[in-house]
Amino acid sequence: MSTHDTTRRAFLVRASVVAGSVAGAGLLPDASAQNLEQHQDANAPAPATHAPGAAYGTFFNPQDAATVAAFTERLMPGAPGKPGARDAAVLTYIDLALSGAYAELQDFYRRGLTQLDAYCRSTHNETFARLDAGRQDAVITALEQGKATGFTWPTAQAFFETVRTHTIEGLFADPVYGGNKDFNGWRLVGFPGGQAVYTPADLQNRQAFTRAPMIGLQSASAEGFGATGPAKPTT
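Above: the chain's sequence. Below: its structure in token form.
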């Protein structure tokens, strides 16, 4: 098994713990929520966010977007026929979440990304997004193990765990939240989405449900309540 496949396998094993919970909604990881208010700087300037529809999203600037895209792709790298974080638009999911449900984590991300690039410059003389895949993996391992220096708040491990959790959410949450593009995350694990009707035979069947196309909240809403939504993709 290649290193590439090993990385994907390790991520999916961890993701399986929470994938069922994020299929319909996001999770706020304890690592980022713990004592969050105690670390907010009362004298810090107001967050400088982008307007909805801006070229680089609603929250991330170009540099931070490149870092998060590279980071999440190393957590769940794509391969031919195997979608990764980029294929599932995980960056879009996190960007939208930080402008909405996770707005309280904006400073957490901003400071974490600043510390990440400072660590990369001090150890590799380059920002994270410009490192090759091997060095990016080494940096991520250092974060996960709490060995990356220069982190105060958030800690290296807290930042890693939060980005990993949000990557899982972006892969497996309903596409209405911006991630799981083209149902790539659900297709990866064989999840059929929220079907409108299951027959008694469906409920008793122990095999994977494959009769109907995958649908998400937006598609179900369009069918059930007349709202505008995307057409069902074919399987």
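Residues 55 and 145 are 35 Å apart (CA to CA).
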